Recover the amino acids of this structure.
């Protein structure tokens, strides 16, 4: 099985390697035959605004946002037609048994569990069963796993696959883009997916920096999408226990870099900001910031808005096939589709007050 997977990866890479040298569109040309759909945003009202943009997600009929409150890390809104109604805040900041200093939040609709991951060298995760949704405010229902006594995890990213297994991006000197980490035992299992380049002059621990990215999971299946933060590289893969069983590469910009010092890399070419990837059960949305980090100021001037904001989105299915292309009427950040693919929600900045607010774009059926 291992040899077969490595051969599959080698075949995919060989198939794309010649193309990578000849194009600067990296797969976007596959959407050329799909006319861009112009989307007009409408402002979403709320009874308690936030004053700082941040990640948010949908769980049941609620929107859970990163909080700008100094004490609690998240706040909850109930979605009521075209408005958001504040329901409360949760997760106090601190070092107590039911507290975290910082956290990312993930929702698994299959188990209806909200997972709060405090990834640092004092690692702790909290699983909250959202049956009912009000459990977010009742810490007696929370399941806490403190893995701060385990050896430090040498990884950039961490994403929950189950209540105990997380997929990570290790930087421990192995030629492996991903690994599975058991938060209860500390066991780290490297997956058979090597870095998609032959830059052997750079130590493996430094090559990992070139591939820092984000991972998203299909809501109901063990299919994942990875988007590199440092280039337009997107990989879809399946997991069967601890085996990579399927690979595709809908976007294929391989970063070019050299070692810089003992633990960094310096990019020499192919250094665009990667796609901001969000998912539903039927689609993967790739929001394109259109920023060349080697020409950052020129890119911002060309776009007409700051880095981190987007106006163009490529949508594909979970096979990597193009589905749609959207052009928004305003720059936004932190795009998130509704689970039924009816809307795109995002943060936008008011032109006059400069305060953030949420807008919603209706998607065509």
């Amino acid at each position: 099985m291992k040899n077969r997977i490595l051969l599959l990866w080698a075949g995919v890479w060989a198939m794309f390697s010649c193309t990578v040298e000849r194009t600067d569109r990296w797969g976007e040309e596959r959407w050329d035959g799909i006319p861009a759909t112009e989307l007009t945003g409408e402002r979403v009202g709320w009874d308690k605004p936030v004053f700082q943009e941040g990640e948010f997600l949908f769980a049941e009929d609620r929107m859970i946002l990163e909080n700008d409150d100094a004490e609690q890390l998240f706040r909850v809104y109930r979605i009521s037609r075209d408005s958001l109604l504040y329901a409360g805040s949760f997760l106090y900041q601190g070092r107590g048994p039911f507290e975290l200093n910082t956290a990312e939040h993930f929702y698994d609709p299959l188990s209806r569990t909200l997972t709060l991951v405090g990834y640092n060298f004092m690692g702790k995760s909290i699983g909250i069963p959202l049956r009912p949704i009000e459990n977010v405010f009742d810490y007696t229902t929370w399941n806490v796993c403190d893995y701060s006594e385990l050896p430090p995890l040498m990884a950039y990213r961490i994403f929950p696959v189950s209540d105990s297994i997380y997929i990570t991006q290790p930087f421990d000197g192995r030629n492996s883009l991903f690994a599975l980490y058991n938060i209860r035992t500390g066991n780290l299992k490297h997956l058979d997916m090597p870095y998609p380049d032959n830059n052997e002059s750079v130590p493996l621990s430094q090559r990992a920096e070139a591939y820092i990215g984000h991972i998203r999971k299909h809501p109901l299946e063990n299919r994942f999408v990875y988007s590199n933060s440092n280039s337009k590289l997107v990989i879809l893969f399946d997991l069967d226990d601890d085996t990579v069983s399927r690979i595709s590469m809908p976007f294929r910009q391989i970063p070019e870099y050299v070692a810089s010092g003992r633990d960094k890399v310096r990019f020499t070419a192919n250094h665009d900001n990667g796609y901001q990837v969000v998912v539903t059960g039927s689609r993967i949305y790739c929001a394109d910031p259109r920023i060349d980090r080697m020409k950052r100021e020129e890119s911002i001037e060309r776009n007409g808005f700051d880095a981190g904001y987007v106006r163009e989105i490529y949508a594909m299915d979970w096979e990597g096939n193009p589905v749609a292309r959207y052009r928004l009427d305003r720059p936004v950040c932190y795009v998130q589709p509704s689970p039924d693919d009816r809307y795109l929600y995002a943060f936008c900045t008011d032109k006059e007050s400069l305060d953030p607010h949420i807008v919603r774009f209706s998607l065509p059926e």
